[in-house]
């Protein structure tokens, strides 16, 4: 890719307003809000967009906000969506710097304060330069952390009201060095499903176990058998995870009481729908047949939370080319290994072509990965992310 000269790079221009963007990011960090409670955050975003004379629309998917910027020309009829998430996590922050969370039990530990700020930085650049032909929709979404805020916005008519030919989003990544970008032309993150198994037996005296149907023993067999799904039903070159992460049965103070029920909760991660279907079916078969073999009964409740986040090849190419032009090809990983984590931007990528990028922010070497109580978004990433968003707009909607 031909590199963009430093003086023409959106990153250089956005750096000139980094002090204001940093103050904005740190203010968001100090005032974290959970999914669908982002009232102050949304109001702060709307205020900032209005100061830039950007048309704003509020209350989409409860607390979502959309800003609309038209290019110097719009006769191409082309449209683009750039998305940032706004929500924080229910955690207690352990940082002690001045911009630490002011709200007990709430923390911006995933850097969505930074994502929101990066999109605002792009908004300022794009509204001042308008070097594009078409319309850019800035999508500030609520509730990424388990609330499917992206789906809420889509269900609320996001793409009918604000058409987007393509959509892009990025997530900061502490284990990637600052200034590097990673993506690939397919699956970036896995589908995330939640399952719950309830085993019902017959409780009784631990000394007279032959008179009971022990659900703890049944649950133990189910836990062991589920580990055969990935090792014996999934092809060795495919990817899937089945994890049982929580179990509950009986009372730790009652050493001689066999309980009547045992409950297990876990997650399944897959990239391909056919594998996802197979794992759900196998889980159900294992749960039903093991319970019945022991004379117990069991139910499996299986909920598909987020689909897989899958980039479309053309848009991954475009985003990679923009990153290469702005940061140099050496700083672009175009065949990034997918992660078994999940992301609700997947709902937008199911509706529109687009790409999801990982943005290096460094810092993981200090043990501060995402969702750590001492995590903080690296403000030096702001111009890089803003510049990438802006570059994607200029390349997607050329004059
Ligand atoms: Zn997160
Ligand atoms: Zn996140």
- The helix/strand class is alpha/beta
| Dominant shape | elongated
Output the CATH class name of the largest domain: Alpha Beta
* Small molecules in complex: zinc ion
Strand count: 16
Helical amount among residues, as a percent range?
25-40%
Average pLDDT, all residues = 96
Folded structure, characterized:
There is one protein chain. This protein has 399 residues and is α/β, with parallel strands linked by helices. It has two domains: 6-189 and 308-396, Aminopeptidase; 191-306, Alpha-Beta Plaits (2-Layer Sandwich). It has eleven helices and 16 strands. It has an eight-stranded mixed β-sheet, sandwiched between helices. A four-stranded antiparallel β-sheet has the order 10-12-8-13, with helices on one face. Strands 7-14 form a two-stranded antiparallel sheet. Helix 7 (215-232) runs antiparallel to helix 8 (273-293). The longest helix is centred in the last third of the chain and has 21 residues, at 273-293. The chain binds zinc ion (ZN) (2 copies). One zinc ion binds at residues 110, 112, 144, 171.
